[in-house]
Amino acid sequence: MCGIAGFIANSQNKLELKSIVKKMVDMISHRGPDDTGIWVDESSQVVFGHKRLSILDLSMAGHQPMHSKCCRYSIVFNGEIYNHNHIRNKLQEVNEQLLEWNGHSDTETLLAAFESWGIEKTLNECVGMFAFALWDKEVGTLTLARDRLGEKPLYYGWQGNTFMFASELKALKVHPDFTCEIDRNSLTLFLRYNYVPAPYSIYKGISKLPSGSYVQLSINNKELTSVTPYWSLSEVAFNGQSKPLNCNDDEAVSLLENCLGSAVEEQLISDVPLGAFLSGGIDSSLIVSLMKARSSQPVKTFTIGFDDSDYNEAIYAKAVAKHLGTEHSELYISPQDALDVIPQLPLTYDEPFADSSQIPTFLVAKMASSNVKVALSGDGGDELFGGYNRYIWSRSIRNKTNWMPKSALQILGLSLGKISAPTWDKINNSFSGLLPSQYKVTQMGDKVHKVARQLAVKSDFDLYRGLVSQWQNPADVVIGGHEPDLQIISESPEKMFKDIEHRMMFMDASTYLPDDILCKVDRAAMATSLETRVPLLNHNVLELAWQLPLHMKIRDGQGKWILRKLLYKYVPQELIDRPKQGFALPIDAWLRGPLREWAENLLEESRLINEGFFHPEPIRIAWEEHLKGNNMHNQLWGILMFQAWLEKE
Q1: N or C end of the chain: which has fewer CB within 10 A?
Q2: DSSP character for 245?
Q3: Active-site residue numbers?
Q4: Which residues have a Cβ under 8 Å from the Cβ of 296 and sit 6 or more positions away?
C-alpha cells in the first residue's frame, strides 16, 4: 500500500520539478512511511513521486517509481495484486526470458504484463485493489487506472496548463498551480449524500477516477480521453440476475464458501504481520472464521468498545474471538477519545466527508496499526447480500401500497411530507402515553417523512435518493449551487432488475460503497499507515453474489441469509443473531452536550453569511430544532464537517 502523485510539467528545470513532487508525496507520507521515490523524464516533463508502505518484497527491488526491463514503461503503483504470482507463471509460459526477476513485488509483475499484454488485458487479469499511473515512453501516453470496486483512490485533472494526479487531494494542493476553487455544485451533492460521489470532487477541475476504469492523456496533443471502463458492475449485475444459479441452499452455501474462502486465502499474502477487524457482526466474523481455517499462524483480531451499551459491540466480538481462538485485542474508548478525533477529520479526508462512523473506524485502525501492517475487513456484505434495513423496508411499503394508483400514492406522500417532522413528533408524543410499549414509535417525524418520500417518488432511483439523502433539496441550502445529475447507470434500475431490493443493492454498490464505505476505511487506515483488504469485494465473490436469487440473500424479513448460513458452520448461531447495530456514535446527544459549543461556533449566522456558501436560515432552523430534541444530526453533521474542513483550507 502506498501513496502516488505526479504531474506533467511546463518547462521547469529538473531540480524544480523534483522539489515540487517531493512536497506532493511528503503530504501523503502516512500512506507510505517506508520509502520515497522520485523520477523525472526530462524529455517529456513527466514527473512521478511515490511513498511506499512495504508489504510485499521489503527489499529495494520493490522501490518505485519502477521501470520495465525494456525501459518502455514507468509506473507508480498503490495497492496489492493478490494473484500476481499466477500472472508471473502465465507470462513465463510464453516468454522464458522473464524467468529472471529482480524481486518478487507485484509492481514488477505488472510492468512485465504491460509489456506482454498491453493495458486492458492486464487490468482484466488482475485480482486486487489498486490505483496507478503508467507512462508509456514509446507512444507518449500517460494512463491512470483504478481497481474494479474502487478500493484505492485516485484524483486527477487540469489546473491551468498543468495536468496532475494523486492518491489524496492534499498532495495536489501543494502544487504551485493548484487553485483550490470550491465547486458549489459538488457541495450540493455532498449535502445530499454526506460524501462527494465520483466522478466529482470538492474542487473545480479535479475529478475522482471512477472505479473499474482508466483514462489516458497524450503528451503530444495534451488531449485527455474519455473515461474507459474495463469492468462493468452494471453488466455483472444484469447478467447475473438474467441467468441466476440453479441450485439448492446447501449447494449455494458451498459455492460461496469456496469462492470467499479462496479470496481470503489470496489476501493472506504478506511479508509483514497481518490481522483483521472484528466487530462481532456477521461480515467480520465470517472473514475471521475463514482466515482462521486457512492460516497457519494465529489470527490477530481488533475491536473497540464503548461504555454506552447502545453503541457497544465489543462484548460480541470478544465472544466470537474466544470461540474461534484468535489473539484478540480490544480497547474501550471514552467519549473524549472519540471527540479528540474530530479535529483531525478534515485533514484525514481532504474533502468534506460526513459518515460519523469515520471516528470509530479511525480509532480501530489506529489500534490495529500498532500491532500489524495489514488488516482484513468485512465491508461489502450489506451491499452484496441485502443487509440494509432499507431493502426490507422498501419491499414492505411496496407490498402494502401496490393496490393504490401511482397518482394517489404521490398525493398521499406529498400530503404527509407537508407536515413537519417536529409536528409529527409532537403528535406522537401526545398519544404515546396511551399506547402499549410495543406500539410506541421513536423519531416519528423522521420515519413518517421517509415513508412519505417512498410514496411520492416517480422512480426507484428517486426512491433510493430520497432514502439516502440528508438534505432533500440541497440546492436550496447552497448559495449558487446546482445539483449535477448522478449517472449511476445508462438504463433505469426498473429495466435491469425485477426486484426492488436488487435495484437498491445495485445503487448502493455503485455509489455508497466506493464513495462512502471504502473511502472511509482507506483514509482512516492509511492515516495510521495500515493497509486494509476487503475479501468480500473480490470480483469473483461479487459476480457470484449477483448470480444468487433474492431469496438466498433476504429471507423471512432478514438480510444476508446465505452469509449467516455459512457463518453458522464456524460460529454458534446464538453468538451472532441479534438486531443490526452498525458502527455508530451518539452524535445526536453530543451535539446537545460536549460538542454544542463547537457546533454553535461553526453554525453561527454571521459566520455563514460572511463565508457565503450556505443560506443560514434552513441551517439555523435545523440547529434550533435539534437542540429542542428533534434529531437533525444527520443533516447538521454534513454542514459541520464542511465548516470544519473549510476552516482548515
Answers
A1: C
A2: -
A3: 2
A4: none
